[in-house]
Amino acid sequence: MRYLILSDIHANREALSAVLQRVRRKRWDKTVFLGDLVGYGAHPNQTVEMVRALKPLVAIRGNHDKVCSGIEDGEMFNRVALQAALWTRQRLTMQNLRWLYRLPEGPVIVDGAFAIAHGTPIDEDAYIFGEIEALNVFRQTTFPLCFFGHSHFPVVFGLSPDAIHTVLTEGSAFRFRLEPGMRYLVNPGSIGQPRDGNPLASFGMLDTDTRTVTIYRVPYRIERAQQRILAEGLPRPLADRLALGR
Ligand code: ZN
Questions:
Q1: What is the pLDDT of residues 93-140, one digit of tens each?
Q2: What is the pLDDT of residues 6-41, one digit of tens each?
């Protein structure tokens, strides 16, 4: 089976379009989404509808999906994130808002093959930044393979019986093999707001037959995404950071 793994799209239609264009000729069996479909970007309805059309789809909610659909009030959000979330809540059609509202909380097991979580499989709102958090998650779970998002930082943590390894992805198609006896936590990176210093949209593909994961980076029309953010009156830092990948 081949899985298309998408995360942290954040209503960035230009970035999502470029990703779907990149995979146009690839074959995959199922799309998996790790949360944060909306919030920050200027095209919430379009991006929800684009993802909903990717069937079959397994999707979980992110923290922004919760605030934008009214499950939470966003008291933990900073001013810019909250302003964008409230704008998004007003813009969403009732149908799209309901769809977001009903997204399940992770972790979800996909086809008995791997787990998906937004932040971590223990706490959907918590972050995995480095090996300390990764080790903590490995200790409290038994999943051999779990994909996560939320940090907007593409990275692979591998746990062998005696050590934890961090692999930073590089290049436009970074492929690695899942070794037997190892456990993995994999972040495919963010499509709509990368924060690893590389502004290119980031996503993943998992092939369970060859036991390989590939992290792709794709250029998109960043200026257009920025123009739409400013035209909608959303906070300027949300436009500026897209070009920096921060
Ligand atoms: Zn996010």
A1: 999 999 999 999 999 999 999 999 999 999 999 999 999 999 999 999
A2: 999 999 999 999 999 999 989 999 999 999 999 999
| Domains in the chain, number | 1
Cα(215) to centroid(ligand 1), Å: 17
Cβ atoms 100, 65 nearer than 8 A: yes
CATH of the domain at 238: 3.60.21.10
Check residue 65 and give its pLDDT.
Answer: 98
Contacts of 94 (CB under 8 A, 6+ apart): none
Residue 119 alpha carbon to ligand 1 centre in Å: 9
Tell me how far the alpha carbon of residue 126 lies from the centroid of ligand 1, in angstroms: 11
Task: Report whether 37 contacts 11 (CB < 8 A).
Answer: yes
- Could you count the other beta carbons within 10 Å of the beta carbon of residue 55? 7
Give 161 Cα–ligand 1 centroid separation in angstroms. Answer: 31
**Cα 191 to averaged position of ligand 1 atoms, centre (Å):** 9
Domain span holding position 37: 2-244
Q: How far is the CA of 240 from the centre of ligand 1 (A)?
A: 17
Q: Which residues share a beta bridge with 147? A: 116, 186
Instruction: Quote the pTM value.
Output: 0.97
pLDDT score of 53: 97
CA dihedral 223, 225, 230, 231 (to 10 degrees): 110
User: What's the CA-to-centroid distance between 24 and ligand 1, angstroms?
Assistant: 25
* 209 Cα to the center of ligand 1, angstroms: 30
What's the gap in Å between 181 CA and the centre of ligand 1? 31
What pLDDT score was predicted for residue 99?
Answer: 98
Q: What is the mean pLDDT of the chain?
A: 97
